[in-house]
């Protein structure tokens, strides 16, 4: 617990405000000078007189509470300034690869805030929330239409939780068939998200890495076949398009190999923004797929949450998916049902998941329709290929030379060789030029990786400006690599020791060096 003096802060720790133009370097609330009696409200004297509580015992406070005494304008300005420090899509382009940081229509926020959605409780009688149940049913039906799958479960709270839900369902199917004792390995491609092996381990499986094919970074069918002969494989987890931005063109063959060996194909849906409306996931032979609707279908990613990661299933797994699920009774009313105890993989979330996130998902889908959903994927892929082409011509090095990408692509640091500059220098230089950095040093199989995803949201003018700045930073690196080490210079906090901060975090305000 943090501890502060009643005056707000010891005089030796007081810091002065700093500002550049109207960008004020905000202090912590406890760094403001405190003035006894100052507050944003007034209580009548008799209201604060009360009988001494007798049930608190030794827990009764004996000293004044250590909170600063501030006026309402001071507190309002403090939190308003802090709110502006959070860079978001409302500020500018956010090209984090594999995260799909796209614009989210404000109308959907309004829809989710309607009283019939925001003022209900999951323990209400079902007869009083038929509209909410209809939203859940419609979201599920829409996701099945987009993917072509057979079953859908909506409770999962985000992507990694969706992965957990999918593998729990696969595990339950193996338990039901009696194969769980022998099927104990999950195959994980070398370029996979780190959550994949973590999820497999949480479900009690061992993991075996599938090496990336050298020419395109994709999964090799024959390698999967060989691994299935060597190990008792329960499933393979494939991200398609891959984290390298390449379409796994052998995905159906991989599924066939898994099914021939009594296993399942789990597809990581983090990159669905490149496929929806263009391809039916069911045609790939997929058995389970999570959908990051907080990225792909409108809701605010990286805004502090919450997220949602519905999971769709093939016919082979639909009978084992978690509960609860919505279905329609003979009289037309909607009902929440539980699966039979022996076949369901149980609950993965309290009540029915992140309901208001799913409201935004439905609003987004209905606003775009089938043609709009398809155009999202087409524009996302077009924007990524435009950036890849321009940056390659400018002299940057793609991780997969000579190939077109899907919705994202990876640059390596080869163009920085012998310059003294690094991927991190490029990322920090972007900060000084008004752009949030791309994902750096991931995937790990690419040296000095720069993973870029523009999404469909960005205009041609924004993409051109981004290319110009990256090209200028590359030129600076080749002509004066030492200069790159001084980026960023305009941000309130300059280049900090991120490794030290991770290894030795300062968790108490009192531990800040005097």
Automatic annotation (TrEMBL):
Organism: Aduncisulcus paluster
EC number assigned by the record: 1.4.4.2
Catalytic activity: N(6)-[(R)-lipoyl]-L-lysyl-[glycine-cleavage complex H protein] + glycine + H(+) = N(6)-[(R)-S(8)-aminomethyldihydrolipoyl]-L-lysyl-[glycine-cleavage complex H protein] + CO2
Broadest EC class assigned to this enzyme: oxidoreductase
Transmembrane parts of this sequence: none
Coiled-coil annotated residue ranges, if any: none
Protein's recorded name: glycine dehydrogenase (aminomethyl-transferring)
Keyword Transmembrane assigned: no
The keyword NAD is assigned to this record: no
Domain Glycine dehydrogenase C-terminal: 377-479
Gene3D superfamilies documented for this protein: 6.20.440.10, Aspartate Aminotransferase, domain 1, Type I PLP-dependent aspartate aminotransferase-like (Major domain)
Top-level taxonomic group: Eukaryota
Keywords: Oxidoreductase, Pyridoxal phosphate
Pfam families, per the entry: Aminotran_5, GcvP2_C
């Amino acid at each position: 617990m943090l501890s502060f003096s009643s005056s707000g802060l010891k005089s030796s720790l007081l810091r002065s405000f700093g500002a550049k133009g109207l960008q004020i370097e905000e202090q912590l609330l406890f760094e403001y000078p405190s003035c006894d009696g100052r507050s944003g409200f007034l209580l009548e004297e008799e209201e604060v007189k009360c009988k001494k509580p007798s049930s608190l015992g030794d827990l009764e406070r004996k000293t004044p509470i250590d909170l600063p005494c501030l006026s309402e304008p001071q507190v309002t300005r403090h939190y308003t300034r802090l709110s502006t420090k959070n860079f978001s899509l409302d500020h500018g382009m956010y090209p984090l690869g594999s995260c799909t940081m796209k614009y989210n229509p404000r109308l959907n926020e309004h829809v989710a805030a309607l009283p019939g959605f925001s003022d209900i409780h999951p323990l209400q009688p079902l007869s009083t929330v038929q509209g909410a149940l209809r939203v859940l049913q419609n979201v599920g039906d829409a996701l099945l239409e987009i993917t072509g799958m057979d079953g859908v479960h909506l409770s999962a709270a985000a992507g990694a939780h969706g992965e957990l839900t999918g593998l729990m369902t696969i595990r339950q199917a193996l338990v039901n068939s009696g194969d769980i004792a022998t099927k104990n390995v999950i195959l994980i491609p070398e370029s996979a998200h780190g959550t994949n092996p973590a999820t497999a381990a949480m479900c009690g499986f061992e993991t075996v890495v599938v090496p990336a094919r050298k020419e395109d970074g994709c999964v090799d069918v024959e390698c999967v076949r060989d691994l299935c002969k060597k190990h008792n494989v329960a499933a393979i987890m494939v991200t398609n398009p891959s984290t390298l931005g390449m379409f796994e063109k052998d995905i159906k063959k991989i599924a066939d190999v898994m099914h021939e060996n009594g296993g399942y194909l789990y597809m990581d849906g983090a990159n669905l923004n490149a496929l929806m409306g263009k391809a039916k996931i069911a045609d790939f032979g997929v058995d389970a797929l999570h959908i990051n609707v907080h990225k792909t279908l409108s809701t605010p990613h990286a805004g502090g949450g919450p997220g949602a990661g519905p999971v769709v299933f093939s016919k082979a797994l639909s009978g084992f998916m978690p509960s609860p699920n919505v279905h329609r009774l003979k009289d037309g009313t909607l009902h929440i049902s539980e699966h039979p105890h022996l076949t369901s993989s149980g609950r993965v979330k309290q009540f029915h998941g992140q309901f208001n996130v799913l409201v935004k998902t439905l609003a987004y889908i209905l606003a775009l329709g089938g043609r709009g959903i398809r155009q999202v994927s087409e524009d996302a892929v077009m924007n990524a290929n435009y950036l890849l082409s321009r940056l390659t011509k400018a002299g940057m090095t793609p991780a997969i030379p000579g190939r077109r990408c899907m919705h994202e692509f990876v640059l390596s640091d080869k163009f920085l060789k012998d310059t003294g500059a690094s991927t991190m220098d490029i990322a920090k230089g972007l900060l000084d030029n008004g752009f949030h950095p791309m994902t750096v040093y991931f995937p790990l199989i690419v040296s000095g990786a720069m993973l870029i995803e523009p999404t469909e949201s960005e205009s041609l003018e924004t993409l051109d400006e981004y290319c110009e700045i990256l090209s200028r930073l590359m030129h600076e690196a080749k002509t004066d690599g030492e200069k790159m080490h001084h980026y960023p210079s305009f941000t309130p906090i300059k280049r900090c020791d991120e490794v030290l901060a991770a290894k030795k975090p300062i968790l108490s305000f009192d531990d800040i060096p005097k």
